[in-house]
Structure to design on (278 residues):
């Protein structure tokens, strides 16, 4: 797994200095950021006068599976866009591992730092086999020429075999990805992220369009990843959220309105009004 505290700074390329960064962060925030994989505070983003995020603050613990829910327009996608560097906030902070300032990094640097994102629509190479998709996702040099001429190491082959097991596609390794069922394509994309060995996985509506059997397996897959990775799942399917969530964060109009276990969230009058009661 990527270290949250590597020996070089992805923002500057300089070596060392992580202890100084951590001490500076703790000095500014007290102990609140210590032990958090992700800590975002007071994020605000506006698009043509519309506040997609409005002072959003939340955190993710190491190995946690956090579910984020909310009605359309609540700010869920914008939140993930900020975390992954696609959108820059008007104000606020976003820290990874307590020392990495995500707002100082580019999108590729954020990936290298250890954050992987799965979009709702699978982004796989449908003309390549399942194995070749995972091969392309191997952490390291991603240039086409390098991919064509490089030989996988024994460790890399072992890792691909391990990931094929995790995503339950061992018997599909030579199948062209375009021939897979919808759910299998989603699992393959999760597998491609796992090949990059992220500390934090952001997963957007993973069960949209899935059969009940695919949905059940997706829940089992995400639960199996928690602990080894931190996982943030954005989802609308409340039955699915109930099946996997230990902590749920509810967004509305760009801010957190409720947080806790599913029972607490379900019984929150504000949540019932703005989301569950729709």
């Amino acid at each position: 797994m990527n270290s949250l505290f590597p020996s070089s700074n992805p923002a500057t390329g300089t070596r060392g200095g992580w202890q100084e960064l951590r001490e500076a962060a703790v000095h500014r925030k007290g102990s609140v950021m210590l032990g958090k994989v992700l800590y975002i505070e007071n994020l605000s983003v506006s698009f043509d006068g519309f506040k997609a995020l409005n002072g959003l603050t939340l955190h993710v613990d190491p190995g946690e599976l956090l579910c984020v829910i909310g009605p359309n327009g609540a700010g869920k996608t914008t939140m993930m866009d900020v975390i992954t560097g696609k959108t820059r906030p008007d104000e606020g902070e976003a820290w990874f591992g307590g020392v990495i300032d995500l707002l100082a990094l580019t999108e590729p640097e954020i990936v290298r730092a250890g954050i992987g994102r799965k979009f709702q629509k699978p982004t796989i190479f449908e003309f390549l086999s399942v194995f070749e998709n995972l091969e392309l996702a191997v952490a390291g040099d991603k240039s086409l020429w390098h991919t064509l001429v490089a030989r996988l190491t024994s460790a890399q082959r072992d890792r691909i075999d391990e990931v094929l097991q995790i995503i339950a596609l061992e018997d599909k390794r030579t199948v062209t990805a375009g021939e897979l069922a919808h759910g299998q394509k989603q699992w393959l994309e999760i597998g491609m992220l796992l090949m990059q060995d992220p500390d934090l996985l952001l997963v957007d509506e993973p069960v949209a369009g899935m059969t009940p059997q695919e949905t059940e397996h997706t829940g089992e897959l995400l639960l199996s990843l928690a602990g080894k990775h931190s996982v943030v799942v954005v989802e609308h399917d409340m039955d699915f959220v109930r099946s996997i969530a230990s902590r749920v964060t509810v967004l509305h109009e760009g801010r957190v309105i409720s947080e806790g276990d599913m029972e607490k969230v379900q019984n929150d009058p504000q949540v019932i009004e703005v989301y569950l009661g729709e």
Notes: The domain at 61-87+106-276 is CATH 3.40.50.300 (Rossmann fold). The chain has one domain: 61-87+106-276. Residues 183 and 214 are 6 Å apart (CA to CA). Residues 182-195 form the longest helix (14 residues).
